Amino acid sequence: xxxxxxxxxxxxxxTTSVQDVLLETLQSRQLLSHPFxxxxxxxxxxxxxxxxxxxxxxxxxxxxxxxxxxxxKILPNGRAKDLVxxxxxxxxxxxxxxxxxQRFAMALGADDAAISPAMSALIGTYDDVLSRGVEWGxxxxxxxxxxGAPIAxxxxxxxxxxxxxxxxxxxxxQLHGELEDNHANWTLDALAELDPERETVREGVGLVADAWWxxxxxxxxxxx
Length: 224
Hints:
The chain has helices at 2-26, 35-42, 49-74, 79-92, 97-107, 117-131, 134-162, 171-193, 198-221. The chain is an all-alpha fold.
């Protein structure tokens, strides 16, 4: 029993260390502070912006299960792998998250548009961190998932209040508002299990966080 307690204390210390680096790295990259999301919250998006956003965000949703599957395959057997597989199970449903997102996108009249430069770069960044190894991949995943719940809640509230989107068509965001805290905690614990170097966490988080910020900059540039 004593050994188990010591082991648990070590995991808690590592989780706190990773979380400290995460918060420090994201301090200037909090996505809800981006002008695009601020306009979303305030009901100030121009006509057609949500449609264009959905057409691009769809690429991320299509990529995520594949990313999680690849990450799980290269993780050694153990708790970290199990946590990633739980995350993947949530994504693929049923119903799958891409199916729920499609319902939202169709409600906005989203077309099957070509991928934009910033979304292409974002997808490429996820490929990049994963190619560097499991610690990088988990750190990159954590960059968005750690912010996912409040972002989803904010989006859902804005869609209901300002944009006339039905409760059924908001299901994707409502669900993510409920699930993303779990996903973030699973990813944080999985990364802490691997005892990563602080600089690895910092760079992995920073690369993906910057790519998301650039995607939102691209959204803003469309109306400037």
